[in-house]
Amino acid sequence: MVVITAAGAIRTIAAIEAAATISLSIGLGGLGVPTPAFAEPTFTLTSKDFVPGKPVASAQLFNQGGCHGRNESPQLEWSGAPAGTKSFAITMFDPDAPGPGWWHWAVVGIPADVHQLPSNASASGFLKRFSAVEARNDFGTVGYGGPCPPAGQSHRYIVTVYALGTGDLRLSPGQPAQMFDHEIGTKPLGRASMTVTYGH
User: Fold this and answer.
1) Dist. CA 33–CA 27, nearest whole Å
2) Share of the chain above pLDDT 70, in %
3) For residue 99, which phi and psi values (nearest 5 degrees)?
4) What secondary structure does DSSP assign to the chain, as a single string?
5) Entry pTM
6) What's the gap between Cα 75 and its chain centre?
């Protein structure tokens, strides 16, 4: 099939369609780059107790091994979780410790409608209200273990909240935090992190 233009030129329908497609693509995305889809809400994590660039308060420091804190887990709040989130998990990890690093905290089973934890949620019984499950940290205790690097050293502590596509990772209280981390990594929909530093 052909089309005769006003100028008398003959073009095939296919050629006209191709030209229109190129024109539309350039108009919308610039040089043929597709127009981006609407962005998902940004998944973010904040804390009143852990503020990047500020010292960690004694309340959040470990209370053994030469450290004299109160070992209270930090207040945390998150927003913008991906659609389809069925639960949240939290980890706290020190990548500067010798060997494979040091696990300070891991908790799973936080319901999808919970978007914050108060200070000391680990020891106060708050997490037990909705049957969240805590791991054994690398200090050998179940629950939160605060920063306590060797004297003269400064370490980073990475706190991450994960949005998961499942509400049941089939983990038991007191299993190693590294096992928690492995299972969390099988169902992530998104994550939000912050890093604080402490030395003494």
Assistant:
1) 10
2) 80
3) 70, -135
4) -EEE-TTS-EEEHHHHHHHHHHHHHHHHHSTTPPPPPPPPPP-EEE-SS--TTSPPPGGGS-SSTT-----PPPPEEEE-PPTT--EEEEEEEETTSSTT-EEEEEEEEEETT--EE-TTHHHHSTGGGGT-EE-B-TTS-BS-----PPTT-EEEEEEEEEEES-S-----TTSBHHHHHHHHTTSEEEEEEEEEEEE-
5) 0.80
6) 15
